[in-house]
Amino acid sequence: MLLLTPVALWPCLLSLLRTVCCNYSVDLCSWKGSGLSQEPGSVEQIFLHCAEGDVEWLYPVGALHLSLSPRLPPWPASPATPGSRGARVTACIKPAESFRGAQIYLERDGELQLLVRDQQEEEEEEDGAIEPKVHCFSRSAGEKVALFIQSTLHRDISRRIAAFKYELRGDWGSGVLLPQQIERACRPCNDTEVLMAVCTSDFVVRGHIRSVFHDAERQESIVSVSTTKIYRQKYTLFHPIGKYGKSFGEVRTFLKCGVKQGVGTFIFTGHVHFGEAWLGCAPRYKDFKRISEVAKEAHENQCEIESD
Asked: What is the pTM of this model?
């Protein structure tokens, strides 16, 4: 949840953004640096141009101003509804378990909103270790995404590393959605969405559901999948086991979707979110074949995958 920074802190933090900086970093996807090379009170400007990457700030001192302007692929945008601002971009931040020594703010309309607190402070309040949470927010397509990473005061900075992963994507139908979009993610895909998912997803596999585990704490359902055919996978999500040509992997979805173990063969599609496979459309294979054949006859197939 986004928390507004106390008003008294805004002038101080925003003034840092206007500081003339001697450090200036331009990279494509990831950045790694040390606060030991920064002057106290300075702000290092960082520009990243990928849809995903890593930031690792050793011994945080001063602050970082991170501008994210990815060259996003043309994911299918959601239809604009009355009063909406059209296509959206979803951005997510996942702090490392060892995130220490800094806080992350979202810069929006001249204000700073707290996204990620110093992990040490949270653990002291909770009186024990806590699991870092993924923080997501939404932007209009083309709107600037900027983060302000402010170091926190500690006597000993030697063991403090502020590291996190980021992802920016078009308005998907699954995986990195904001809470208000979960209902849409859980509904069955129509024929057009199935065909688009096969063409644009990070993974497309055919297989069976082995089991379903419901994680109430994370509000996720984990579907164990045994594949008989891997059409595409952006990363190695499904690993071969044994000598019979089958691969196994896990696909996640929201607990609210109420996924149950079903019999039969399915086409599983979806996207990768911080190294995990998130379910998109998952029609039965026989239904996918029917949809694909109808589209092929009408010359409406955006792409084709091999079918038996």
From this structure: 0.69
